[in-house]
Amino acid sequence: MSKKVGIIIGSDSDLVVMNKCKDKLTSFGIENEIRIMSAHRTPLAACEYAKNAKENGVGVIIAAAGKAAHLAGVLAAHTTLPVIGVPIKSSTLDGLDSLLSTVQMPSGVPVATVAIDGAENAAILAVQILSVADEELSAKLAQMKIDMENAVLAKDAKLNAKD
């Protein structure tokens, strides 16, 4: 059985984006949990979560935050688990501030970063990480790729169908 994925969001306003992450993980049968923690307002809670995540059955942490998006980095500083950052588009700078805050990590504290509001890709990356040790997940990922290919081919065939 795969480990669960911890989804940490900096604010409840991030749920609009991150519910897509939760839904994608659930579609793969991966247990997940969403918690609200702030790198700046609840730093001790965020650090404790990261420190104890592995012992609590978490295999990957996904952290989403906007503006001064330091959440993923704070979590990564306190765990050896893979951390995936999701920069959230905010009213300020269209999420560029979030992207730069998430992706610009110092040496030794990596955070895998997906696109601004890239919740679904964060989920898929988490599945890929967990699938390294789980053949069932690996097979589900392979099927997802086949399904995506078939969907594109079907759209192309429909577009080019002769009436």
SSE layout:
Layout lengths: L3 E6 L5 H13 L4 E5 L6 H11 L4 E9 L4 H7 L5 E6 L7 H8 L8 E2 L5 H13 L3 H25 L4
Parallel strand pairs: 1-2, 1-3, 3-4, 4-5
Features of this protein?
single chain; 163 residues; alpha/beta
The tally of beta strands, per DSSP, is: 5
Order of adjacent strands in the largest pleated sheet: 2-1-3-4-5
Estimated structural class: alpha/beta
In angstroms, what is the radius of gyration?
Answer: 17 Å
First CA to last CA: what distance? 50 Å
Order of helices and strands: EHEHEHEHEHH
Q: How much is the average pLDDT?
A: 96
Count of discrete alpha- or pi-helical segments spanning 4 or more residues:
6
Uncertain segments: none
Shape: globular
Strand content: 15-25%
- The helix fraction, in percent, is 40-55%
Biggest β-sheet strands, sense, barrel: 5 strands, parallel
Can you offer a commentary on this structure?
Helices cover 47% and strands 17% of the residues. With 163 residues, it is α/β, with parallel strands linked by helices. The protein has a five-stranded parallel beta sheet, with helices on both faces. 39% of the residues are buried.
Can I get a quick summary?
The chain is of the alpha/beta class and 163 residues long. Helix content is 47%, strand content 17%. Strands 2-1-3-4-5 form a 5-stranded parallel sheet, sandwiched between helices.
